[in-house]
């Protein structure tokens, strides 16, 4: 996932080794993180998979079970890790995460401050964005959650890029040692307006803050606090709509019902093969598209603001 340790680079080209973390892909809605151990086995509905058969294969490989079933072994990228991590808290998903990283202008070498850590979904992507020379300092007031997140970052090879601290940022603010050093700050707190004054002190001139809130009332109060020291204040709601596109068949017997079905804008008839000799078929192959039933709706509001320059 990240070229952190020169002796153990994780990429799609590297072969799987004993002790690696892999994402076992059964289908798009069924994946799990597994640590490879030469003497271990994975059992699922497709059969028994020996870890020893995985070692030496490149990430992305298709491996077979004793019954002939198969799974894919994928690299633990931040995108996949977000889908398989333990949900200790509500997490940010890919649409919000990509938006946050873009608008916070996070690039390699940045120093990013985050509160709270939660399940570490965003933190994982922030770490990849600042690699190899940047760093993410993330804080959570809950000691056990922070410890669990720290273990996850060890598993995914991010421990050299992420430091997890236990601290009540709402009550205490960020540590003074980061004053004026932060390129960006991310807040995911119940009362973010309490942490905004401290966040402003942590940022470099022209630094950017982002606050994630599920309720618009939180956004309104945060914006009131931001106006004193920040400018370019903007709030977004990221709504992502995915589609299922697959081939099916529709009846084309010539009736009104069939005609109306084929005229729908999300269906496109494919040309019949030349070998049909002009004969009418009871059905024809059709590419159909429809909104996915798993589309996520509202997750929260993202408020961005840039620190005012003093000179």
UniProtKB/TrEMBL annotation:
Residues 250-295 are annotated as: Disordered. GO terms for biological process: tRNA methylation. GO terms for molecular function: tRNA (adenine(58)-N1)-methyltransferase activity. Gene3D superfamilies: 3.10.330.20, Vaccinia Virus protein VP39. GO terms for cellular component: nucleus; tRNA (m1A) methyltransferase complex. Residues 69-306 form the tRNA (adenine(58)-N(1))-methyltransferase catalytic subunit TRM61 C-terminal domain. It holds the Pfam family GCD14. It is an enzyme of class 2 (transferase). It catalyses: adenosine(58) in tRNA + S-adenosyl-L-methionine = N(1)-methyladenosine(58) in tRNA + S-adenosyl-L-homocysteine + H(+). The keyword rRNA processing does not apply. It is found in: Nucleus. Belongs to the class I-like SAM-binding methyltransferase superfamily. TRM61 family. This is tRNA (adenine(58)-N(1))-methyltransferase.
